[in-house]
Write a structure and sequence with these properties.
This protein is an alpha/beta fold and 222 residues long. The chain has helices at 14-27, 39-48, 68-78, 93-101, 114-125, 133-143, 155-159, 163-173, 178-185, 189-203, 208-218, and strands at 5-10, 31-36, 54-57, 83-88, 106-109, 130-131. Strand 1, helix 1 (14-27) and strand 2 (31-36) form a beta-alpha-beta unit.
Length: 222
Amino acid sequence: MQSQLKILFLDDHAGLRDGIGFLLSQKNENLSFLYATNREEGEKILRENSEISLAIIDLNLEDENKDGLSALKSFRKILPDLKTIIFTMYADPIHIEHSLKEGVQGYITKNAEIEELEGAILTVASGKTCFNSAASKIMQSMLSPESVLNEKFSYMDYKSLTKSEQEVFSLLAQKKETEEIAKILGKKEKTVINQRSIIYQKLNIHDRLELIEFAKNIGVLF
């Protein structure tokens, strides 16, 4: 009989989290789950259970950070070798890129079947990586300039923006006006207006509505 694989499951939607954990443990008796609603609970569990080797983490948490990746950074200070699967509703370039930069071993979207999540757990626990089809498609678009998720909204076009232009883009997507953006960024309003024009040109968009739709497609807004 195989030894049990202890897993930390961090998700603030307790009903969904506990239900999925129950189903997985019923399907595979070698999977054992410990549940956390926020980063602090997760930290406590890891300190008390050093044998945990894998964590399943939702990206959007209703704590002070609302960020599963911030929790992951904290968890790895406790258990540096902790393997991680991101389990989230978000399937967009921004969230996937940020997750990859944090060195996650798996990325599974919440529309996946329970068997797919089980397979990902076993794969990651064995030392391999696992990204489901929705995440893999986006990863391909990020790596290949010729491959785009949407002919109208190219992540590669967004990446062509400078860091300063991306800051303006994000604030425009939040429906802030140029005068307010200038104050936030410490720029002249004329500079912001010029950058807005450059952003529209680079992204081949024509108005704020298109910009907001672009932002939602790539994960700047969600």
